[in-house]
Amino acid sequence: MKGFLGVYLRELFLLKNRAFKFILSLSVSPLLYILAFGLGLGKHLTIKGIPYLQFLIPGLIAGTTMMQAFSINVEINISKFYLKSFEEFKCAPISEVEYLLGEVATGITRAFTATAIILILAYLSGVKPVINFSFFALIFLNTFFFACLGVISAMLIKSHADQTLITNFIITPMMFLSGTFFPVENLPPFLKELIMYLPLTLVTKDLRKVALGGQTVPEDFFVLSSLCLIIFLLGLKAVKYGRD
Amino acid sequence: MSQNCPKISVENISKTFDRIKALKSLSFSIKRGELFALLGPNGAGKTTLIKILAGIIPPDKGKVLIDGKDFFKDISKFKKEIGVVPQTINLEPELNLEENLLIHGLIYKMPFNKIKKQIKKVLLFVDLWERRKHRVKNLSGGMKRRLLIARALMHEPSILLLDEPTVGLDPQIRRRLWELIKKIQLKGATILLTTHYMEEAEQLADRVAFIHKGKLTVIDTPSNLIATLGQYAIDIYTKEKRITKYFQSREKAEKELLLYSRENTLVTLRRITLEDVFFKYIRSEL
Fold first, then answer.
1. pLDDT grade, residue B261 (50/70/90)?
2. Is the N end or the C end of chain B the one with fewer CB atoms within 10 Å?
3. Which of residues 240-279 of B touch A (CB under 8 A)?
4. Which of B75, B92, B99 comes nearest A83 by C-beta?
């Protein structure tokens, strides 16, 4: 798996060299959401008897980790269209599995860094979510799924403009509608039915349950793991297509 | 594996992009340890051929044999045999020299203990060891080109593909790179160089081939190709155009030169270069 290490190390070196900017940019959005929605708009708000900030933090973690994992497509696109460094991977004797795992590991690293920042901000705001194995497992599955999706989109698109379309039409609506900021039950029935089956909705629901001291549904883990396996296999196909 | 077997054999390679035939049934072979230059204007098909030989894209038709074996049947194994210096500088600008080479070593599956030694070896070879901790974005154009060569040599390939390695460089740096390329050949590598600088091919190549509109027009040594036109040329400048005449001896060329000089025409005498041969063949193809 040296090829995997090569791909992963490249991204880690890039993160290391831009560590300050990276951490700063990771902190801005969650901080704004906590300030605007949590402390501003939701100061006196409760949902099902839970203070809004406590309700918001798990959703924010699910949404932000999705965004961070998916955003590896930006780095891949830069290497494809601008730096042309993707050509080096095309020349190298590296397998599709190694390449995909390397990029997915990067997405997971970015997402867990974002989680740590949100947790620090949550503690500073007086919210202490329950953190256990299920909590991390859910974040892992969420980031694995969306990192694979990020790689697939990067492999299939032909220009930067196509990438913006995917983000605007798929990722941003999911961030807002999958139960991140409000319960999905509040949505109109037809939309609710659709949203309920999105992976982020499942993760947000379970992560919130865990963070508030509840138990997850084992079937949900099975569904999420199956989705990860399917998208990983699709990711391998996409990498092969992207290399050819 | 016989020593007489060509290192690279290209057999009837064709490639089409969006109905445009980039390569049309191309065939040639490169001997072990040879420096073979492929000359052609922009859009001739040089980069497409390099991409096929690097395993980046497969041909639509035809075969590539490395040491007599089908390259595309065991591509992962053969990719380790090939070092590629691309036309575009595709290094990671935000990483330092060592980091760039370390990543290359890993994706080429080099043993861990060898990577460190090899980084030092190749950086010393291209005279960039002192700058190993510098970020690539802070290097000059010539240094980046040298680093591309160092990266291609990291995994000790027996074949080096150089796609216009000196494009955009000043003459001094270009000559420095030529020395480097010759040194690599002397170490035993088989080199395929694409260029549109005739002087570069003349100085470096054992044999050259002209490629135009996806077809090979001629293959021979630079001296043999030049000899087909003669030894000396005179350029006659009229109001409308420049006319070049070729001669087997200096005496004959000087006689002609005198004739034109008496007519008060601007005329110059020089040795025939590969560029003359190139234009002759390419024009005949137009």
1. confident
2. C
3. none
4. B92
pLDDT top residue among A29 and A143: A143
Residue among B57, B91, B94 minimizing CB distance to A14: B94
- Whether the per-residue pLDDT at B138 is higher than 60: the answer is yes
Contacts of A91 in chain B (CB under 8 A): 54-56, 79, 82, 84
Please report which confidence band the pLDDT of residue B286 belongs to, taking 50, 70 and 90 as the band edges.
Answer: very low
How many domains, in total, are found in chain A?
Answer: 1
- Mention every residue, 6+ apart, whose C-beta is less than 8 A from residue B226: B272, B273, B274, B276, B277
B108/A89 CB distance under 8 A: no
- Residue A113 sits in which domain range? 2-243
Domains, chain B, with CATH or none: 8-81+157-220 (3.40.50.300), 226-285 (no CATH)
- What percent of chain B lies above the pLDDT cut of 70? 98
